[in-house]
Amino acid sequence: MKLLIDARMYGLEHSGIGRYIINLIEGLKKLGNKEQFVVLLRKKYFDQLNLPSNWKKVLANFRHYTFEEQFKIPGIIKKERPDLVHFPHINFPILYRGMHVITVHDLTMQRQGISATTLPLPVYYLKRLPFLLASRIGIKSAVAIITPSDTVKNDVSEYYNIDKNNIFVTYEGVDFGKFENHLRGDPEGLLGRWNLQTAKYFLYVGNAYPHKNLGIVVKAIKKLNAEKDLNIKLAIAGSKDVFKERLQNLVRQENAEKYVKTLGYASDEELSVLYKSSIAFVYPSLSEGFGLQGLEAIASGSLVIASDIPVFKEIYEENVLYFNPNDVNSLVEAMKKVMKISGEEKTQMISRAKDFIKKYSWQEMAKETLEIYKQILEKK
């Protein structure tokens, strides 16, 4: 069995998708001793990544969402002659005609409106329409679709009119080793770097895309401080994106500069300290496919305040505090509630939540994915 994975989005700079591909490959390395694997990689990780002898690296240094990948990726795949191809994202090369599995992490990009772009409208539509076409072809022609939650499975089935029997859920995981190693204080003085060593703060981790709904947290932190005459901060950690300037403009418009601290990129080790030392991690999204950051926060020893969207209720169940993501007052009340929780009650809540999230395993995700490959090829 020869399997090819388009791993060009390998790496944490690609956020959740990059982490998914990293853990998929790491898991398959431990499991797939009898199979042959081929991975397509950009130059950075082609040079860095070490793989077992039954794995082959192929340089495919093409950016996503480009005409170049559309024309060149099919030829590279054809040359390798795999039995099955896995596209871990929906940027599908429409000229490819072979058997493939595709992972759909969410339908945010399909459902987003013009507010989710900084491009001039003609350019936006020129880029968006080919993307929608390519993703539709890739999803509709796949022999199997993988999603990270039942919520996304149902969305994909409804949106594309696809039989649910062809859609498989493989829950993602959390690396307890990375996020539990830094539970005892801040030995390296990381909080001092951001002037948070004596601050009380709520934390957000991630990008500033419109569906992340960061505006409501900015408004809530201002309202919370105004009502209680406090000095509570909102710390925002995440990679740069084109919507960061919009966020900064909103902070200025709300006159919330003294309450909001933008930290920039933070490593997993740094995040573990930020999570642990926060009042709570706030996850205000209007749409998600899974919710990795909430698991990281819990593993680090933090409480989580999450929007009451279906996917979060599926993943976290009763182990976080929920609020209405369209109501600033709802979030403010959740923040107040967290601040009133006693130390003993907080310890108990975090302990229960940690036990609960142990069911989410990256290794189990890789095992289930390999079983999907085998099941498809056995049918063939």
Give an overview of the whole structure.
The chain is α/β, with parallel strands linked by helices and 380 residues long. The chain has two domains: 2-172 and 361-379, Rossmann fold (3-Layer(aba) Sandwich), CATH 3.40.50; 176-357, Glycogen Phosphorylase B (Rossmann fold, 3-Layer(aba) Sandwich). The protein is built from 16 helices and 13 strands. A seven-stranded parallel sheet has the order 3-2-1-4-5-6-7, sandwiched between helices. The protein has a six-stranded parallel sheet with strand order 10-9-8-11-12-13, sandwiched between helices. It starts with a strand and ends with a helix. The relative contact order is 0.12.
Gist of the model:
With 380 residues, the protein is an alpha/beta fold. It is 47% helix and 15% strand. The strands form two sheets. A seven-stranded parallel β-sheet has the order 3-2-1-4-5-6-7, with helices on both faces. A six-stranded parallel β-sheet has the order 10-9-8-11-12-13, with helices on both faces.
